[in-house]
């Protein structure tokens, strides 16, 4: 009942904002209005990272499906939010944000008590930022080329295969670097901010877990034997811990990812939309 009421309020907030109607004076729940977000998502896309973060942080949000089958990410309405036509976008009271790492960083800075990112004054901040940027502009960027080789090297299948072989080597090296970081500085991956919950994942863990899930599953028609979770035991432990969290269950239920989305993933069976 409470949830239903909350959802109605969220929807009415965004409708009112669009139509420039006056906001209700008294919110019905403890969070301030500035905490309301809208996530543009497709199941098992990079938006999953943000959904996991929002769930983990306990922030109210609503979702808007980007219909990938219809190519909605290329339409004018979506490109007005993200000119690159990539998923995700998070609409916030400060405007629409795209780029997964930018959204994570913004959310973490905006809600510093959640432990999602190392705070500006933390001695961990420098290391945290370097690995978050590495995750975004090296690991994720390489992964995109592995998944969409045609976009980067054209239609020639031999060249696509060569590119993918190089990328598989690179990805293995990147995973090895991250495994070493997780062994040396586990506090970059598990936030120690709350003594009642010693397993709180940071943004790095959420981002990495999703990318490792995709390595295990995609591209579905190509060699994926190069990726073995057992090769990176510290990362594997983080992924297994993540699967025990209520936030992960909620996100996975919403996107049809099952109960072992990271350690034994299967393709998405979403209640709405499609992964690709
Ligand atoms: N650098 C972007 C990459 C996002 C990305 O690759 N999104 C994929 C889905 S996982 C996408 O939108 N693909 C649609 C396309 O390439 O047309 C980010 O971090 O947000």
Automatic annotation (TrEMBL):
InterPro entries, per database record: Glutathione-S-Trfase_C-like, Glutathione-S-Trfase_C_sf, Glutathione_S-Trfase, Glutathione_S-Trfase_N, Thioredoxin-like_sf
Domain GST N-terminal, chain residue ranges per copy: 34-115
Chain intervals for the UniProt region annotation (Disordered): 255-276
Domain GST C-terminal: from-to ranges: 121-262
Key words, A-Z: Transferase
Domain of life: Bacteria
GO molecular function: transferase activity
Protein name: Putative glutathione S-transferase
Organism: Phaeobacter porticola
